[in-house]
């Protein structure tokens, strides 16, 4: 994860080079950092009330999260990014593919192995209040994970709760308060403190700051950067706010209708993103620094129909669509180090 700063929202069109190396799996990074999480061709199909009704929520998704790194998954609501988080945490079973955590296959491991997973993976949700018990004081809430996993005694956990509050820059005086007595920003900081209390290797942050005021959001994002550096945490940051995602992550993965569209280093996103959908997302990011503001065309989001496409799921909305786009799904191909794209186009 990089230090937060002001990102330039300008978009510079770039050509896709014709030096591709077709691959369906996630590319190994040049980095020597060990792999914490790996998804291999993961799919999830939800079946409706009728046997013939199916929704392809996630299709052939492969990605890698390395130790100490932060990966952002971005896309419109309904693109499947939260479903990926739920499959990793075993809230939702996987239809096919593999999920590896620390090299161990945890695909549909079930309740018997869930405790071991949660020792390594914790999740921070959009609504912090939903994870609290309204009758539980903050101190008890923070101690619960330490006691559940047998990491500390009651006395040790009480002392650790004080240290955790200091880590998330809150006063220990709040330990005796109840959730409703905290602000939204304070609740999210406490939720983060609980998530890191058992020293997991991976934090999944599902829209973790989107419900907060902008000023509070910035404070929480800066806190996450500090905690990652201090604890060498890996983050899988899920959201729809491209400006936030790119400002705090090392790499951005763009999804549409259950499929990966593009994977690119965050610092390269503004100037070297190639996929038409990624460029459409970048064009929707407002900046007060933009002088030549182009009108953004708003159109109906027919994502449910796009999921059933035999070809590229974005072809119905793509201004560059060709005949092959509706007939054949593009495979992820490598443009250069850490930059992959699923698109039939060679040039723009």
Description:
- The protein is of the alpha/beta class and 348 residues long.
- The chain has two domains: 25-134 and 194-297, P-loop containing nucleotide triphosphate hydrolases (Rossmann fold), CATH 3.40.50; 136-177, no CATH class.
- It contains eleven helices and 13 strands.
- The strands form two sheets. It has a nine-stranded mixed sheet, sandwiched between helices. A four-stranded antiparallel sheet has the order 3-2-5-6, covered by helices on one side.
- Helix 3 crosses helix 4 (154-167), helix 3 (138-148) runs parallel beside helix 5 (184-197) and helix 4 crosses helix 5.
Which features does this protein show?
single chain; 348 residues; alpha/beta; Rossmann fold; nine-stranded mixed sheet; four-stranded antiparallel sheet; 11 helices; 22% strand; globular
How would you summarize the topology of this molecule?
Elements: E1 21-22, E2 35-47, E3 54-66, E4 70-74, H1 81-88, E5 96-101, E6 104-105, H2 111-120, E7 121-124, H3 138-148, H4 154-167, H5 184-197, E8 202-206, H6 214-231, E9 234-239, H7 242-248, E10 251-256, E11 259-265, H8 269-272, H9 276-283, H10 303-307, H11 323-327, E12 333-336, E13 339-341
Parallel strand pairs: 4-9, 4-10, 7-8, 8-9
Antiparallel strand pairs: 1-12, 2-3, 2-5, 5-6, 10-11, 11-13, 12-13
Helix pairs in contact: 3-4, 3-5, 4-5
């Amino acid at each position: 994860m990089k230090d937060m700063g002001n990102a330039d929202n300008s978009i510079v069109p770039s050509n896709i080079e014709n030096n591709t190396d077709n691959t369906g799996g996630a590319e190994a990074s040049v980095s020597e950092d060990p792999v914490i999480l790996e998804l291999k061709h993961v799919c999830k199909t939800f079946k409706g009330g009728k046997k013939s009704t199916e929704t392809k929520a996630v299709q052939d998704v492969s990605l890698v999260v390395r130790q100490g790194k932060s990966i952002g998954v971005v896309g419109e609501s309904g693109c499947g990014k939260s479903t990926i988080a739920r499959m990793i945490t075993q809230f939702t079973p996987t239809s096919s593919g593999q999920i590896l955590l620390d090299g161990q296959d945890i695909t549909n491991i079930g309740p018997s192995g869930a405790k071991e997973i949660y020792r390594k993976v914790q999740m921070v949700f959009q609504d912090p209040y939903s994870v609290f018990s309204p009758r539980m004081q903050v101190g008890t809430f923070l101690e619960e994970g330490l006691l559940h996993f047998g990491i500390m005694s009651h006395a040790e956990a009480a002392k650790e709760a004080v240290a955790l509050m200091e880590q998330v820059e809150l006063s220990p005086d709040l330990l005796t308060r109840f959730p409703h007595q905290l602000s939204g920003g304070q609740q999210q900081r406490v939720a983060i403190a609980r998530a890191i209390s058992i020293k997991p290797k991976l934090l999944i942050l599902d829209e973790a700051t989107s419900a907060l005021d902008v000023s509070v959001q910035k404070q929480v994002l800066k806190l996450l950067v500090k905690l990652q550096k201090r604890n060498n945490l890996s983050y899988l940051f899920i959201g729809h706010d491209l400006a936030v995602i790119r400002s705090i992550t090392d790499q951005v993965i763009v999804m549409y209708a259950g499929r990966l569209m593009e994977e690119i280093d965050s610092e390269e996103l503004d100037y070297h993103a190639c996929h038409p959908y990624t460029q459409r997302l970048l064009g929707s990011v407002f900046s007060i620094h933009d002088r030549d503001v182009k009108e953004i065309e708003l159109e109906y989001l027919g994502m449910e129909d796009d999921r059933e496409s035999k070809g590229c799921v974005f072809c119905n909305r793509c201004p560059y669509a060709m005949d092959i786009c509706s007939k054949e799904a593009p495979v992820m191909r490598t443009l250069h180090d850490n930059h992959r794209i699923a698109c039939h186009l060679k040039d723009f």
